[in-house]
Amino acid sequence: MTTVALIDSDVVGYRCAASCEPMSTKPEREPVDFAIQRMDELMWKILATTEAEEFRCFLSGGDNFRYLIYPEYKANRVKPPPAWLDECRKYLIQHWKAEIVVGYEADDAIGMSHKDNTIIVSNDKDFKQLIGKHYNFVTDMFDEVDEDTADYNFWRQMLMGDRADNIIGVAGIGDKKSEKLLTPLTPRERSELVLDLYNDPARFTMNMKLLRILRSMEEYHDIIGEIHESVIEKSEGQKTPTTDSGQDSGDIPSTGKR
């Protein structure tokens, strides 16, 4: 069976662009050519190390549904992006056939595409909620996540939240306490415990949608449908009463093969 690498190009582009930013050891920003060279080197390293016969690269576009659910999503990210990030993204699209996804994130596109013959390529810990093979190109480590571990990782993140994305979990619960609470439990017991600790079904449901990586387009359409229904309900509840008259007041093959 052909091995397909699913590459988190958001991270590839950002890291290589950021590597050119000024720092104490190099006060001047390096040229964009340096970032592009590092991207090529990293991409070839990924393909060689994973021994993938094919690959797909994903970049996050706009209109992420998570902002509709929670306007404060990632609002804590005030640091400006690296200067060469746009150039790096364009290069990934033109030379590595990166696919831009709209309405959701690159993480979700990877989750939807993940099969028995794919390997997830990223250093993002969020992917550990997905069963299967993983390769971290930063640590150069492989990992295989089983069903119970994937379930545990998701509920642990629900308890802890995600500071990087401005998602608040359960107050007072961090690494050690979440591990102690969840380790001895079954998947059903974990979900029941986390729901009880939230003590707020609406926030619990919202965080599940924010933190869970999508597995299919059907899941995405279901969430969008719920958002639209909620908007309609709110607008109907705010309608102005009518009057009596009824008036309102590179050279890489396009198939992604090596």
Strand content: 5-15%
Strand order of the largest sheet: 3-2-1-4-5-6
In terms of per-residue confidence, which ranges show pLDDT below 50 for 5 or more consecutive residues?
242-258
How many angstroms separate the termini? 15 Å
Q: Please give the share of residues in helix.
A: 40-55%
Q: How large is the radius of gyration?
A: 21 Å
Shape: globular
- Summed up, the helix count is 10
Q: What's the average pLDDT?
A: 92
Could you walk me through the main structural features you see in this protein, from its secondary elements to its overall organization?
This protein is an alpha/beta fold and 258 residues long. Helix content is 47%, strand content 13%. It contains ten helices and eight strands. It has helices at residues 9-18, 32-50, 65-69, 85-96, 106-113, 147-160, 175-182, 187-198, 201-211, 217-237; strands at residues 4-8, 54-60, 99-101, 118-121, 132-136, 141-145, 161-162, 167-168. The strands form two sheets. A six-stranded mixed β-sheet has the order 3-2-1-4-5-6, sandwiched between helices. A hairpin with a 4-residue loop joins strand 5 and strand 6. The two termini are 15 Å apart. Mean pLDDT is 92; it is low at 242-258.
Short note summarizing the structure:
By secondary structure, the protein is of the alpha/beta class.
Secondary structure layout plus pairing:
Layout: E1 4-8, H1 9-18, H2 32-50, E2 54-60, H3 65-69, H4 85-96, E3 99-101, H5 106-113, E4 118-121, E5 132-136, E6 141-145, H6 147-160, E7 161-162, E8 167-168, H7 175-182, H8 187-198, H9 201-211, H10 217-237
Parallel strand pairs: 1-2, 1-4, 2-3, 4-5
Antiparallel strand pairs: 5-6, 7-8
Helix pairs in contact: 1-2, 1-4, 2-4, 6-7, 6-8
